[in-house]
Amino acid sequence: MLTPLEELDAELGEAARAWLDAALAEAAADAARLEAAAADTARSEAAADASRTAASPYASPSWELRYAAAGRHCGQRHADSVRSLLLVEARAPLASVTRLYDQGTAAERRAVLLTLHILDLGDTALPLVEDALRTNDTRLVAAAVGPYAADHLAPHAWRHAVLKCLFTEVPLTAVARLADRARGDAELARMLTDFAAERTAAGRPVPEDLRAALALTAPAGHPAPPTAAPAPTEES
Fold first, then answer.
1. pLDDT tens-digit profile of 110-149?
2. Contacts of 49 by beta carbon, 8 Å cutoff, 6+ apart
3. 149, 134 Cβ separation under 8 angstroms
4. Over the range 25-64, which residues count as b (16 or more CB within 10 Å of their CB) and which as e?
5. pTM of the model
């Protein structure tokens, strides 16, 4: 089975492959510099992070500039994969991840969100997920409910993320580990039932995704709670 880098190598042209090789080398070198600084236990973490850009404290590491240019050099179809590889190769710290998200386009932000679960950030990147879930950009919402959210979002925030998907018509297939986290969740069942009732009262259809999610909330061996009855049609 090919690795993501091998898959890209097979699809990119010669110039794009050369650009990617250089970008990944810069990311790896930056990660090595950070690790070397962190190994010096006499220095603080803040000082180690500052050493990354000692030559120019106002400049971002060169690989971050490559991150923004990924679509231009490797094509928009491969941009997510290229950006993810850069983040992983750089072992991107929270400062870099936050900077790339805050300063990035929607596509660059999406790539950050899609990669969070394979970076060693713990709960520290949750503000980025929470920011994405406050938007109405369906690309960001879908990326925000991936594996990182499944592992780190608190129950209350995760339930609202599920509802956000329903409100914005993001398919619930985007929600990582939906079945695991929804199982036996009575509060999620209540929220979904209330949402279904609101839709029915407004004469709007209840999304099939909602019915499927509601079925998942039932404890093992118990039937799913019913949704609101369908709104009457003009013929009835």
1. 999 999 999 999 999 999 999 999 999 999 999 999 999 9
2. 34, 37, 93, 95
3. no
4. ebbeebbebbeebeeeeeeeeeebbebbeeeeeeebbebb
5. 0.83
Q: Find the distance separating the first CA and the last CA of the chain, reported in whole Å.
A: 56
Within 10 angstroms of residue 224's Cβ, the number of other Cβ atoms is 14
**Tokens 């993320």 belong to which residue?**
161
Dig out the tokens for 37 from the structure. 């600084």
58 residue type, one letter: Y
Q: How far apart are CA 147 and CA 109, in angstroms?
A: 16
Chain centroid to CA 235: 45
Q: What tokens appear for 53 in the block?
A: 């850009």
Burial of 122 (0-12, 13-18, 19+ CB in 10 A): exposed
| Angstrom distance (rounded) from CA 101 to CA 99 | 5
Say how far apart CA 66 and CA 98 lie, in whole Å: 16
